[in-house]
Amino acid sequence: MSVDVTSLACGASCGAGPWGADDARLRCDCGGLLEVRHDVDALARVPADEWRRRFDARGPMRAGWDASGVWARREWVLPAATEDEVVTLGEGYSALTPAPSLARELGVGALWVKQCGVSHTGSFKDLGMSVLVTQVVRMRARGRPLRAVACASTGDTSAALAAYAAAAGLPALILLPRSQVTTAQLLQPIAHGALVLALDTDFDGCMRIVSELAKDPTVYLANSMNPWRLEGQKTVAVEIVQQLGWDAPDWIAVPGGNLGNTGALGMGLELVEKLAGVPRKTRLLVGQVDAANPFYRSFRDGYRTRPTVTAGDTAATAIRIGAPVSYERALRALGRCGGVVTSASEDELADASALADRAGQYLCPQTAAALAGVAKAARAGTIGAKDRVVLVSTAHGLKFTEFKVRYHEGRLAGAQARRRNVPLELPASLDEVRRALDARFGA
Known about the structure:
This protein has 443 residues and is of the alpha/beta class. The chain has helices at residues 40-43, 48-57, 100-106, 125-141, 156-168, 183-191, 203-213, 227-233, 235-243, 260-276, 294-300, 327-337, 346-358, 365-379, 401-408, 430-441, and strands at residues 5-10, 34-38, 96-98, 110-115, 148-152, 172-177, 195-199, 219-221, 251-255, 283-289, 340-344, 388-393. α5 links the parallel β5 (148-152) and β6. It is globular, with a radius of gyration of 22 Å. The mean pLDDT is 94.
């Protein structure tokens, strides 16, 4: 059965629309961001056990689009797309890794790490970009005059856009804040042939410029305000529940920057409840950093205000965002589940990263900020001692090697580096090696 996406509609309170699914606009006249609206009633005619059976029958060992964790759930994502239109680089199907020693350390019932960074470009952004670039291909085939796809980025978005645009043969324009992304994140879009502009501003400044540029109808904006990005990213929530045997966890913790991922997780959990028959019990925890925590400030104020901040220096560069565009989406997601927002200092996120690394994980600093939030919530009793928690790892730690090096060399700003570990330089002597062994592990 194929059920088409019916429309785009305003996600803000005005609720305007519908617009056709192939419309290139991203905002309503009221300023609200648009959302993809599926015919959920039609999808619900398929029994819940049939959806679970269908999704379980697909997997990474299958051929074609079933090998993508996004397109294996295509009926809930972009049902109108055909297999030959889909642009995929094998995204999704990331491991859900148990971390029992870390769970014990934090005092929670169970902890898994959802390894979204183990993806083609090394971050969860691949999931949404596969859908967005597929939609661009479809729009161009239907006569939309789109000459370039553009984004502002702190690193991971640019890598994903450049890779998927290259795979589709599309021109890509990348705006980055100069000297505020890692070398690996800068080189990825360069290697894929994108036009990369390093601007003397921060991410929010890049976002303002690219938003103005996208008023040109031939330039299509690929940032997370684009609703098609969220369609791919919401499959993370579906995949987590499926990996747990169609049983929702008590908590999903995720870092919060532009907040699109928070909104997307809420969307995925809602579909799992409505269509797969899984009772909704999962609460969301959004982890921010003290240097860039507008959503935390709003949460602390009971959401009475929507503050913006000038983001300061932080090791968690991918969430160094002072004016998140998906604030309303995230607010709705947390409101529906009773979610919480936390904020971590540079020392707290560095210590959480090192703690996780000692448990065999290798977290990026953004994910470490969310883990620091889990630790705080567990100490406060917000997360219970028997609660089952999934931590969404949004990027591979290898993209942030400089962060790890500075920590273990004791040069990471704001971090006490309590768990630093350095190699011992010794003579090539068996006795010296034995002494080092005995000193560390006992004779």
